[in-house]
Amino acid sequence: MARIETMDSLRALYGAPKGRSVAKQLDHLDRHCRSFIELSPFLILATQGADGLGDATPRGDHPGFVTVRDDTTLVIPDRIGNNRIDSLSNLVERPGIGLLFLIPGVDETLRVNGTAIIDDDLALRTAHMAEGKIPATVVVVTVREAYLQCAKALMRSKLWAEESQIARDRLPTMGEMLRDHTRSTEQAETQAEMLARYAQNLY
User: Fold this and answer.
1) Backbone angles phi, psi at 20, to 5 degrees
2) 143, 73 in Cβ contact below 8 A?
């Protein structure tokens, strides 16, 4: 095994991109990108901190929870979480952001790359209210690149196929895993207890 350390070495293995894989990249959101975002209830948000470590986190809500303000601007509400604010902290230090939008049942995905700021403007936050709750902040993304990703990865994984679904009891409960990760001696929260608690504070 040899470590690949130069772009020339990497390209020697893969060759240059060509055709549609290059031509499809836009510097704005066209009508197809807008439709994809409007139908998407889930995205993966990637950032990088000043320490150089990358971070990817899920974001989800009702389809259309991410709004398209114009052809180069997206707004993502930051719903209630655990207050680690890893992604937001990273964006304060480095504004680069990558988004991967998914739609259940659709094997293609949408990739959006750009820069982002965190905004606490009340009118903007109120416009992204859900279940009567206003997000603490919104992430405003300036789009630099947008392109559809082919279906191969989701086809190989059979992500949406019924036969791919794993029974939840194939894994320990979240409470049991957290107990072990934190070396707690307390009784682990059951899955039913966790779901009941989440139902009270999703927003």
Assistant:
1) -65, -30
2) yes
Distance, CA of 76 to CA of 61 (rounded, Å): 10
pLDDT, tens digit (0-9, with 9 covering 90-100), for 79-110:
998 999 999 999 999 999 999 999 999 999 99
* 124-127, Cβ contacts within 8 angstroms, sequence gap of 24 or more: 124/75, 125/77, 127/67
- Measured CA to CA, the distance from residue 106 to residue 40 in angstroms comes to 10
Confidence tier at 15 by pLDDT (50, 70, 90): confident
Strand-pair partners of 67: 75
d(CA 60, CA 76): 10
Let me know: does 29 contact 113? Beta carbons within 8 Å: no
For the domain with range 22-157, which CATH number is right: 3.40.50.300, 3.40.1010.10, 2.30.110.10, 1.10.760.10? 2.30.110.10
Length of the chain: 203
Location of each CATH 2.30.110.10 domain in the chain: 22-157
Map residue 34 onto helix, strand or coil: helix
Give one word for 12, left, alpha or beta, with left for phi > 0 and alpha for psi -120 to 50.
alpha
- The residue with tokens 């992604």 is 87
Residue 59 tokens, joined: 């974001």
Give the three-state DSSP class for 182.
helix
